[in-house]
Amino acid sequence: MLRLTAAQTALYRLSSAAAVAAGRPAGRYVEMTEKQDGYGKTTVIDSLTGDIWTYQQGAGIPAALPVDRHGSPTEAAFDAMPTDPAALRALLLEQARQQQAQAIAEEKRIMAEHGKQGSVAMPDLSDDDYVFDQATTMLWNPLVDPGLRAALYKVLAQTPGVQVRTGATDGMGRAAVEISRYENAARVDEETFESPQTGTVLETAFVYRAEGTTGTDLYLSIAGRNTQPPDPYHR
After folding, report:
1. DSSP per residue, 11-63
2. Bridge-partner residues for 42, per DSSP?
3. What pTM was estimated for this model as a whole?
4. Domain that holds residue 132
5. Which of 4, 10, 153, 162 has the maximal Cβ count within 10 Å?
6. Which strands sit side by side in the sheet containing 52-57, from one edge to the other?
7. Looking at the domain assignment, is residue 108 inside a domain?
8. End-to-end CA separation in angstroms for the chain
């Protein structure tokens, strides 16, 4: 008889909650309001193209970032992803390796522009590091539908090193399930806080042990719109 750990049990409960939660917001554009490291932030995703607009409010930071063309998978791309945990884990690993190859190629391009040669140093991440990074990043995206979100929690339940704390709260005091994993290569604790009722992300945090610093991103609201929302801070 296979026994589930307490962490796996909590993750399968999140999977069940996500599976029956409301679907993605209606409308072509999804607008997310956030508080990142204390600053106001609004992210807009075009569900048809994957383009991302980011607006910010705070002293010493740019009011808007360059548009990230195709920065997110589209709604259709998410819908085409497998929900079998083994197949989904394989896809997450494939995506991570592709992203690493692209990062190496870009770094070499920049080095060549400056007349430099040599190898590009990359963090020595394990497959489980990659899977955790990819899965938790994907859980952040509001275009992920309930079936895929439920499958992502099952993948995390089968990933070594994942820790779960129930009865937690996020930075706003909202009830949460905390999921975390230590990434040895970067010496960082990656944490994500999920709603126990819906499985949606409430907050993410990165705790850098060497520097003694923490970066946080609180998610405040998500809304769907049929037209592209304007910059909410500098209209």
Report:
1. HHHHHHHHHTS--SPSSSEEEEEEEETTEEEEEEEETTT--EEEEEESTTS-S
2. 33, 55
3. 0.92
4. 6-24+74-221
5. 153
6. 52-57, 39-46, 29-36, 213-225, 201-208, 188-194, 175-183, 163-169
7. yes
8. 60
pLDDT in the model for residue 5? 92
Q: Provide the 10 A C-beta neighbour count for residue 70.
A: 12
For residue 215, is it within any domain? yes
- Helices then strands, counting H and E runs in the chain, come out as 5, 8
How many angstroms separate the Cα of 101 from the Cα of each of 97, 111, 156?
A: 6, 15, 24
For 191-220, write each residue's pLDDT tens digit: 999 999 999 999 999 999 888 899 999 999
State what percent of residues in the chain have pLDDT above 70: 96
Euclidean distance between CA atoms 234 and 2, whole angstroms: 56
Q: How far is CA 8 from the centre of its chain?
A: 20
Domain membership flag for residue 234: no
Quick check: is 61 in a domain?
Answer: no
CA distances from 225 to 30, 34, 190 (A): 6, 17, 31
